[in-house]
Prior knowledge:
The chain is of the alpha+beta class. It folds into 2 domains: 1-32; 33-142, Lipocalin. Helix content is 15%, strand content 47%. Strands 6-5-4-3-2-1-8-7 form an 8-stranded antiparallel β-sheet. A hairpin with a 4-residue loop joins strand 3 and strand 4.
Amino acid sequence: MVPGPVAAYLRLILTLPPALQAKEISRLGGETMSIDGMYAVEFAGKTGSGFASLVLDKGLVFGSDSGDVQYDGTYQPSAVAGEIDLSVTARVPPNVQLVMAYPPQPVPYSFSLMCSLKPQSSSEVRIQTDLGPVTARMRYMRRLPA
Length: 146
């Protein structure tokens, strides 16, 4: 039987978002995967390929790619062990050709992308966007300065 205060603490932990659960486990000295850091991303679509640099820091994602597209969003631990769920908005400048064969537009626009991946595995992930599919590979480059 679990003592009352311990049961109350566990119930409280279960109400937290996954990112805060991971932070609390880390604070208590438990094992968690370190995912904050700088990442290189190689991606390809129907009409070409490119690269991006992303930073994951305390639940936030931000970066840009070789076509000057800017990325901002969030991540949290996934329900699948070792994976994270990314939710990102891509902001595209005018007259930029995307790798998904979407034609360049005369004005800036944005689109959303979501995926689940193992951040430090360098495995390939297929991302379906409203503008077409993209295949990406994310590679951990370095930890963030303290």
